[in-house]
Task: structure prediction
Amino acid sequence: MKKVALVFALAVLLPSLVLAWLAVRSLRDQQFLLERQQSLLCQRVTDALAQNISDHLAQWQQEFGAQVENLAGEKDAREVAAQFDNQIRSASPLVDVGFSVTLSGLTTCTITCPLPNAGPEAQRFLVDNGSFLGNEESAEVYWNFNNSKTALQSKVRGNDYSSLAQNTANNTQPQQQSGQKLDSSVPSSNNGDSWGLNNIFSKAKARSVNPQSQNYQPQAKQAADPQDANLSKVIPAEAEFRQLIGDGTDGMLGRYLQNKLKLMFWHRLDSDPNLIFGAQLNLNRLVNGLRDVVLPDSVLRDEICVAVLDDNARPVVISRTNFQAAWKRPFVATEIGEALPHWEIAAYLVNPARLTQLAHTTTLTLSLLIATLVLAIGIGGWLIVTDLNRQLALARQKTDFVSNVSHELKTPLTSIRMFSELLAEQRVADPAKQTSYLQIITAETARLTRLINNVLDFSRMERGEKKYNFRDADLINIVRETVETYRPHLENCGFELGFTSSVGALPIHADTDAIAQVIVNLISNAEKYSDGEKKILIEASRRDGPLPCAEVKILDHGPGVPRGSEEKIFEKFYRAHDCLSSGIQGSGLGLTLARQIARAHGGDVAYEPREGRGSCFALRLPLRNDPTPS
Ligand code: ADP
Result:
C-alpha cells in the first residue's frame, strides 16, 4: 500500500504539482504578453498609416511635377517661371508660395519668382529662403529625392549608416566631376570622420513623444540601446540648395524656421534642366487633406484612437472626435519620416483599463483552470488510493473467507463423522444417548446445509442469477414455522426461545423460503454471539408510520456489535468478531445475504443496539396492501 502511494506521489502528484507551479509562474506574464500583443498590433497600424501619409505626400509631389510640366508646356518656360507664383497658387490649393530658380554655372542660383515686390507673403518667403534658394548659404534641411545622382544621399534614417556610406562612396566620382562643394556635414574621404557622422549624430533630436509600448520592450533589447527609442530617426543635414537638388528631377524638403515646419516641393523642368520650380505648401490645408487617410482598421476602430502629432506632440488630426489623452504618452507611435520631419502618427487606447481587466480575467480564468485541474488530480488520486485500499481489504477478506468457510465446513463434518461412527459400531447402548447423537448429527447437517446454501446464494446474487418465487404469504406463519423448526436445537443447547406477535397476521408478497433463510441467519447469529445469558426473543409486529410495514425483531443478550461496525457488518465477508480472537466461526455472508434478500423484497434488515447488553436485528418488509416499492 505504501509502495502504491509512493508511486502515485512520484508519478502523478509531483509532476502535476510541478506543472501547476510552472503554469502559475507563466500567469504572472499575462499582462505583459497581452500588452505586447496589443502594442505590436497597434504598431502595425501606425506604421501603415505613416507609410500611407508618406505615399500621399509623394503622390502630391508627383502631381505638382505634372502641373509644372503642364504650365511650362503651354508657353515659354522662362515666361512661366516669372509668373509661376500666381499660376501655381491658382492651380493648386495646397500651395502657399510658388517659386522658380534659374541655375547657371556650377553654383549660381537666381530666384526668378517671386520677386520682393510681389507682396508681403512673397517678401516673407524671400527673407526666410532667399539665401538658401540663391545657394548663398547652407541650411539645415530634411529632404528626399527622385532620380537623384547627387553625392549626398539624403536619407539618414535609423541606424542605416552603412547604406549612407555605400551610396556616398559610389557617388563621389560624379559629384566631384560636377564640381559641387561639400559643406561640413558632407562626407569627405580624407578626414578622420570621413562621412561626417559625428555631425549627423549630433543633430539627432529627442522625440517629443514617449510611447508606452517602450515599457514592454524585451529586457535584452532595452539594455542594448536604451536611448535609441527616445531619439528621432529623422535627422537633418546641413546642405546648400544646389548640392541638395544635385541632378535630381524632383523632391520634397522640409525646414524648421522659427520652430515652424516649412514644407516644399521642387521640380526640374524636363525641357530646361536649369529651371527649378518649387512651392512652399500650406500646412493646414495639407493636414486637412490627410484626414481621410488617418483612420485605423475597422477591427481596431473602437479600441484605439490614432492622431497625427506635430513636432510639439500637438494633435493636428484625430480619428475620434472629442478624444482626449496625454498626447505625449501614446500607446505606440511611428515617425512619419522626412516628409513631415518629427511628426508622428500615434495610437492611444480608448479604454486603457480594458487591457488590465482583460489580463486579470485571463489570469483569473487560467488560475481557476489550474486550481480545478490540481483539485481534480488530487481528488482522482485520493479516489484511486481509497479504491485500492478497498480492493486490498476485500482481497484480504476473501482470503479470510476461504479459511473461515473451510473451518466451518470441517467442524460439523467432524461431529457428524464421530457420532455416526459411534452409532455404526454400536458402541452406544443407551437409547437416550443414541437419540441425542442422532439429533446432533441432524443439527450439524442442517448447519452444513445452511452454510452451503448461503455460499451458493451469495454466488448467485453476485452473478445476478438469484431468482425469487414471489407469492402471497403471512410473515407470522413463516417466522413461527422457522422458530419451531429451530426450537429443539436451541433448547438442546440451553437457550430460552420466545416468540411474540402483537398482531394476528402480517400479509406480505414474498419468496417464503428466502424470508425463512433470513430469519434462520438472524437466529443463528443470535445463537452464535450469545455468550452469557442464553435468551433469544423474536417479536413480530406491524410498524406504523408514513410507510407502514411488517417487522420481525430478533433480540439476544450477547455482546452486541462493536461500535463503528454497525453498517460494515452488512458488507460481504466482513466479520466484526474475528474467528481467531473470538473463537466464533463464520463466513461473513449471513447478514449480507439477509439484507440483499430483504431489499429484493422492498424491505431491509437493520441493526439496532440494545440498552444494556445485546443486539437487535430487525427485518422489515412491505405489507401486501400497501404500495410496494419494486
Ligand atoms: P458471520 O458468519 O461472521 O456470522 P454474518 O454476516 O452473519 O457473518 O455477521 C457479520 C458479523 O456481524 C459477524 O462476524 C459478527 O461480528 C456480527 N454479528 C452478527 N450478528 C451478531 C449478533 N447477534 N451479535 C453480535 N454481533 C453480531
The first strand starts at residue 95 and ends at 104. Residues 352-424 form the longest helix (73 residues). Residues 440-622 form a domain with the Heat Shock Protein 90 fold (CATH 3.30.565.10).
